[in-house]
Design a protein that fits this description.
Number of domains: 2
Largest sheet: 11 strands, mixed
Distance between the termini: 23 Å
Number of strands: 11
Structural class: alpha+beta
Shape: elongated
Oligomer: single chain
Helix content: 55-70%
Number of helices: 14
Order of helices and strands: HHEHEEHEHEHEHEEEHEHEHHHHH
Radius of gyration: 34 Å
């Protein structure tokens, strides 16, 4: 064998002549590389979708909730909570709500039995909530000053509830809250940072007082139990701390604050942990595949002992024999790596499409995946190559 071209031709012919064996050898590096690329790519795609959502929704939305210190069973915030909160200089806008309990929501009276077992949130809200949440209405309007001043029984429903009740945009429609009919005046779009709002009913504070909240005095107002605050960008933690002081006048436990975007960041961290687990499994699969390559090629050395003996008798050196088997292992790694990359990219595309994520593929994954498969395959092929090179022509007669 005088040229490198001849050596390459013999190695490729050896693989092509044993198609089933070659296919089985390809599976190890292919599955390992595909698992690694899919894990990294899907996690990056989810993270890309997360970044897009955070950029769209903003990181500066803070939820302030009353805790038990403001009341034992039904904690509420002070009546003048809005002016107190507005004393915080880093606050941009604020809205208040009151979560009402034990209200059965139905699209019509005959459906009461069905929806008694399915609690639907009913919230008293002020007129500023959509602007603070930075969410639009997909139909109709939000609650306004006229609803407050005339105690109109107007309601806005979330998009999920609209779908559940088969609400049509612009439809003149009523729903029943504990048997009291409210006219649906609008449908709120999806609220990414507060998913419970998608299936909620929103009414005005005066309507909540008139129909559902029993107070000690006629002049008493319905007190909120939550605030939603938009802070200056970058001052979320400072604003959250300042709100605790401004609202509860220095107390420590009377309310809780929650920066809503932190939940998305925690989800990203959990995705990172999942990625590490799957990547580790992919590397393990590649190593197991390498062991399989070493095993099958060692058996191949015995099966091809006659071929090796003839070539040794014709003057082929040990280095040429070893190089042939190493080249076969290298080709297996190359082909397995390419197939694994293709399979991994396809998995990312399918997964991102189904989940509605942004397709993200780091450019370094493709060469890294192919290189990993080739390195593992070459390492796995070292022992069979050395074993083939050490065979003497006379010994092959005994093996063959």
């Amino acid at each position: 064998m005088k040229t490198a071209r001849d050596l390459l031709r013999v190695a490729v012919t050896g693989l092509y002549a044993r198609k089933v064996r070659t296919l089985l050898l390809l599976l190890g590096p292919m599955i390992g590389v595909a698992a690694i690329i899919a894990a990294v790519g899907l996690t990056d795609s989810a993270k890309g979708d997360l970044k897009a959502k955070v950029n769209q929704l903003g990181t500066n939305l803070i939820e302030v909730a009353a805790s038990s210190s403001f009341g034992s069973k039904d904690p509420t915030l002070p009546e003048d909570v809005i002016p107190r909160a507005e004393n915080v200089l880093t606050l941009k806008s604020v809205a208040q709500i009151r979560e009402l309990s034990n209200i059965v929501v139905t699209p019509y009276n005959e459906a009461t039995d069905k929806y008694e077992a399915v609690p639907i949130p009913v919230l008293a809200s002020d007129t500023r909530l959509p602007s603070v949440l930075e969410v639009k209405l997909i139909s109709g309007r939000w609650l306004n000053g006229f609803d407050d001043s005339t105690v109109t029984r107007s309601a806005v429903i979330g998009i999920g509830l609209a779908r559940q009740f088969s609400y049509l945009p612009g439809e003149v429609r009523t729903i029943e809250l504990d048997g009291i009919r409210y006219g649906v005046v609008g449908v709120l779009s999806e609220v990414e940072l507060e998913p419970s709002f998608d299936n909620a009913v929103f009414i005005s504070f005066p309507s909540a007082k008139a129909d559902f909240v029993t107070t000690a005095k006629e002049s008493d107002k319905v007190l909120p139990n939550k605030l939603y605050v938009r802070s200056v960008v970058g001052a979320e933690k400072i604003t959250a701390e300042a709100l605790r002081v401004a609202i509860n006048l220095g107390g420590q436990d009377e309310l809780t604050t929650d920066i809503k975007s932190e939940a998305l960041q925690l989800a990203a961290q959990s995705d990172q942990q999942i990625k590490l687990i799957v990547v580790s499994m992919g590397i393990l699969a590649s190593i197991v595949g390498g062991v399989g390559i070493a095993n099958v090629m060692s058996i191949s050395v015995i099966q091809r002992s006659a071929e090796i003996g003839i070539r040794r008798a014709l003057g082929h050196t040990r280095s040429i024999i070893a190089s042939q088997f190493l080249l076969e292992a290298l080709f297996i790694g190359l082909l397995g790596g390419i197939c694994g990359v293709v399979l991994g990219i396809l998995s990312i595309f399918v997964g991102a499409t189904i989940a509605g994520w942004v397709f993200v593929l780091a450019p370094w994954l493709i060469p890294a995946g192919i290189a990993l498969a080739m390195v593992i395959s070459v390492i796995a092929g070292l022992y069979p190559s050395v074993r083939a090179a050490r065979l003497e022509p006379l010994e092959t007669l005994r093996l063959g």
